[in-house]
Amino acid sequence: MAAFALVMVGCASVQGPQSDSSGWSQVAPPPPVAIASPASPAAQTAPSPAVRRPAVRPDAPASTPSGALAPLTTAQASAVAVEPLSAPADLWERIRRGFAMQNLDTELVRDREQYYATRPDYIGRMTQRSSKYLYHIVEELERRNMPTELALLPFIESAFNPQAISSAKAMGMWQFMPAT
After folding, report:
1. Is 35 helix (H, G, I), strand (E, B) or coil?
2. DSSP letters spanning 50-90
3. What is the spatial distance between Cα 160 and Cα 173, in angstroms, rounded to a whole number?
4. 21-74 pLDDT tens trace
5. pTM of the model as a whole
6. Among residues 139, 142, 149, 157, which one is catalytic?
7. Rounded CA separation 15/12 (Å)
8. Is 157 a residue of the active site?
């Protein structure tokens, strides 16, 4: 019964994505955490890796005696210790952690991988050129919960040349066109 109550409380507080003024979908923050009564161990679940169980403070109000979940009070919320998520110092590791695109194992992708693998001097120059922009691009992609593979698209489109113009009049690092 307690597990059913946990599921129902979780379902009742889930919010879908919302759009801001820029048109990007924003994911709502998670709902507040509820604390189960110590008298009902069946209602307690294992904590997620980023959240620790709160320490029991003598001045914190007691949970409901029936074992039902109750919203956190201010005192209880301040007792919850959350481990900070630290971004890796290596920008390339941040990019790898954010990979989210599916179905990239195609013949075309393998062909391009082979092309770039045989040109390490070209990759070096592009990587050097990207150093002005890549950190900021990754920051914005992470802020918008977008796949970090998109940060690497300018490698292919323009070799990170912000002044690049194609014969079809596509412009900039991502080779955008006014019509699209």
Report:
1. strand
2. TBPPPPPPTTSPPPPTTS--BPPPHHHHHH--BPPPPPPSS
3. 5
4. 444 444 444 454 444 444 444 444 444 444 444 444 445 455 445 555 667 677
5. 0.49
6. 157
7. 9
8. yes
